[in-house]
Specification:
alpha+beta, Aminopeptidase, 2 domains, Bact_Acetyltransf, Acyl_CoA_acyltransferase
């Protein structure tokens, strides 16, 4: 989830039409941002929601939120924390062993095929928050990553970087510009390219793109258990600055039905 949305003050709850269509159950997104939040406001919002699943996110430092969510009539499914990292943008460190180009420099059909194949290969075993919820099909979640990335190719091709090695796509990074930063929303390498130091090339290209955009810093996030990629970020000079908890608030009847189906 984009950092700017998580950093917005107050409580925001909105439908997620894409998730609802993808999973066949009504999904809403609930974000608890900085600032004072009245307990009754948050509890009333959860209780009045028509969603089968509320995907709730809040800063892990907000120790007031978990008890409030647990006091509602919904089951609370811990779905993992996101850790956010950053570094000042310097640039001037181009990739050395691979070519990293905007998807707009490629044929549209070829770019979409490349992005789809890399995302599927690199995110198949990724423990995202959807996998914590028995109401949601993990295969549909993976398809969602593919659709979102290829949709970005169509809408904003220069915001998708494709990493090529010997003429074959091996990596992808999708980007978004914030107020003072460029954020990596999704990045990955195919398994055959991992463990070879090639991820550093992708990060170098991302930082170069951020420098060209005049951004002051680079922001990136992952599930907290994804230690391997965080080590790579540390080697590139990134540092953690925030952690955001994710829980799914699920109607108990729907959860019981889903677990009964196995």
């Amino acid at each position: 989830m984009a950092w700017d949305a998580l950093a917005a003050p107050g409580v925001v709850c909105a439908p997620s039409p894409a998730d609802t269509a993808r999973f066949g159950v009504e999904v809403h997104r609930l974000t608890v941002g900085p600032g004072e939040v009245r307990g009754t406001e948050l509890v009333d919002l959860v209780e009045s929601s028509t969603a089968d699943v509320l995907v709730a996110r809040y800063d892990v430092a907000r120790q007031d939120v978990p008890a409030l969510l647990a006091s509602t009539s919904r089951a609370v499914l811990p779905a993992g924390a996101l850790t956010y990292w950053e570094k000042p943008v310097v640039g001037g460190d181009p990739p050395t062993r691979t070519d990293v180009v905007p998807s707009g420099d490629l044929d549209r059909a070829a770019a979409e095929a490349a992005v789809r194949s890399v995302v599927r290969a690199s995110f198949t075993a990724y423990g995202n928050h959807y996998t914590a919820d028995p109401l949601l099909d993990p295969d549909a979640a993976l398809a969602g990553y593919e659709e979102w990335a290829t949709g970005t190719v169509r809408r904003s091709p220069d915001d998708v970087l494709v990493q090529m090695l010997d003429g074959e796509p091996v990596g992808v990074a999708t980007l978004a510009e914030g107020d003072d930063h460029v954020e990596v929303l999704l990045a990955g390498l195919v398994p055959s390219a991992q463990g070879r130091g090639l991820y550093g090339d992708l990060l170098a290209a991302v930082e170069d793109r951020a420098a060209a955009a005049g951004a002051a810093r680079l922001v990136i996030s992952t599930q907290v258990q994804n230690v391997r990629v965080q080590r790579a970020w540390a080697r590139r000079g990134l540092r953690p600055f925030a952690a955001v908890e994710t829980v799914h608030l699920v109607r108990r009847a729907a959860l019981a039905a889903a677990t009964a189906r196995g």
